[in-house]
Design a protein that fits this description.
Elements: E1 21-32, E2 35-46, H1 61-68, E3 76-81, H2 90-94, E4 97-100, H3 112-122, H4 127-140, H5 156-167, E5 174-177, H6 186-201
Parallel strand pairs: 4-5
Antiparallel strand pairs: 1-2, 1-3
């Protein structure tokens, strides 16, 4: 299998000091009633690192990710994301996050290009910036030839790459992925991991 060519995606590269801590958690706890989903975990994620949560269903992976995404409040412990408390600075933190859900939630009735444009406007980005960013992201995701194609006609691997490209429209400092290769064939997985490795090289 040939190696994909290296894309030019300079604007995705995040500012900041290489190796600086982007996420710090100490004794992090999340409870739902009497059920303790996250039981006092400690971890730290530095810029440029790939970091994963491993465990069976119900181990608290999704609960922890929702806390990091500033969409769910912790029940105890400490957590700092980009130097801020997510319970107090949720909107500011979310503006610097890219989130790729387990299931692709793209609008299947509009084109690849339109999906990226609508998402960019959701973040309040300017039209000229979005247009330029779309060109970069389509090259990065190897979807240039599918620009005008409706999403419903894409393969599973293409949809996954588009979902990741969409998450990068706002140039996030942290990219969160929930089981990104689920349901993909080996070739699609290879392409996807190649794209993710290039993001890591760029400091995301």
């Amino acid at each position: 299998m040939s190696q994909a060519s290296s894309p030019s995606l300079g604007e995705v590269k995040s500012p900041g000091t290489p190796g600086e801590a982007l996420i710090r958690a100490k004794g992090l706890v999340k409870r739902y009633g009497d059920f303790e989903a996250v039981a006092g975990i400690d971890f730290e994620v530095r810029r440029g690192e790939s970091f994963g949560f491993l465990g069976p269903n119900g181990a608290g992976k999704s609960s922890t990710m929702r806390i990091i995404a500033a969409t769910s409040k912790r029940s105890g412990g400490e957590i700092e994301i980009l130097g801020k408390d997510p319970d107090k600075s949720g909107p500011e933190i979310r503006a610097h996050l890219g989130v790729v859900p387990q299931s692709d939630n793209l609008d299947t009735q509009i084109s690849v290009e339109e999906n990226l444009y609508v998402y960019g406007r959701y973040f309040g980005l300017s039209r000229p910036f979005i247009r330029k960013k779309i060109d970069e992201l389509l090259e990065f995701a190897q979807l240039e030839e599918k620009r005008k194609t409706k999403v419903e006609a894409l393969s599973g691997g293409m949809k996954r790459r588009l979902t990741i490209a969409r998450s990068l429209i706002s140039e996030p400092e942290i990219l969160m992925l929930d089981e990104p290769t689920t349901g993909l064939d080996p070739q699609a997985r290879h392409i996807l991991w190649d794209r993710l490795f290039r993001l890591k090289e760029l400091g995301v």
